[in-house]
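User: I'm writing a tutorial on reading structure tokens. Could you give me a worked example: one chain, its sequence, then its tokens, then a sentence or two explaining what the tokens reveal?
Assistant: Sure. Here is the example chain.
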Amino acid sequence: MLLLISLNDMKTVLKQAHSYIARFDRGEDFVDELIKFCDENNITCAFFVGLGGCSRLILASYNLNTKKYEDHEIVQDLEIANITGNVASLDGKTVIHAHGTFGDKNLQTLSGHVRKMIISGTLEIKLDIFESKMEREQDPNTGLNLLR
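And here are its predicted structure tokens:
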């Protein structure tokens, strides 16, 4: 069954059983829109993979010594070679854990933990949903919000 409906700004192109093929359009914030979609559809456990392009990106790397993320903002057109991650809950709120690899016009790549990603042309993802609830909690040893 082929669907093209707008759920928030995320467009569902195809839905089968527990999977979606979805599209995000220019100017949309991937992380915010995916959280909205999951909240409205009671999705508490999912994994995704995708590709496309973005124009603004906040990538982070985690410093185990300080137990803090170090943010890096990139404002330029980039290819999204891959974005992969999951959907879970932390303290009752939906959270997205995503990592990505991105390429610039010189074919140089950068990668990291995706905090924010504004789409430039499009982003296409496959979202696999599980009927369970997946939760995170802070690990005192690392400071990371780990799956439990």
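What the tokens reveal: Strands lie at 2-7, 10-16, 19-25, 46-63, 68-90, 93-103, 109-129, 135-138, 145-147. The two ends are 35 Å apart (CA to CA).
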